[in-house]
Amino acid sequence: MHDAIIIRHSGPADSQAIHRLADLDDRAVPTGESLLAFVGGELAVARAFNGHSVADPFRPTAELQELVALRAMQETRGRAA
Questions:
Q1: Residues 6 or more apart whose Cβ sits within 8 Å of residue 47
Q2: For residue 13, what is the DSSP state?
Q3: C-beta neighbour count of 67 within 10 angstroms
Q4: Residue 57: which CATH number?
Q5: Residue 55 and residue 44: Cα distance in Å, rounded?
Q6: How many whole angstroms separate alpha carbon 66 and alpha carbon 23?
Q7: Residues 6+ apart with CB under 8 A from 1
Q8: What's the total number of domains in the chain?
Q9: What number of H helices and E strands is found in the chain?
Q10: In the structure, what pLDDT confidence band is assigned to residue 80 with cuts at 50, 70 and 90?
């Protein structure tokens, strides 16, 4: 059985988890509105709409990052229409 993937918008309550993920990835914290991807209930990817993202370096996240980028692109196009 595979773990569920949930992609959703970030909120104020997610700040601490995003900071932890950025520290783990040794990258700057994404700023502004972001999409978050959870696998099995754990945050694995955070991607700001400006394109900056952080991901769990101890998980295989390349495909998940692509999925989140695609979702961000869909939402950005929807806003422009």
A1: 30, 34, 35, 37, 53, 65, 68, 69, 72
A2: G
A3: 17
A4: 3.40.630.30
A5: 6
A6: 21
A7: none
A8: 1
A9: 2, 4
A10: low
Contact of 47 with 30, CB cutoff 8 Å = yes
The tens digit of pLDDT for each residue in 8-49 reads 999 999 999 999 999 999 999 999 899 999 999 999 999 999
Question: How far is 79 from 5, CA to CA, in rounded Å?
Answer: 24
Question: What is the predicted pLDDT for the residue at 64?
Answer: 96
Six-digit token string for 77: 């196009």
63: three-class secondary structure by DSSP:
helix
Average pLDDT over residues 55-66: 96
Type of residue at 10: S
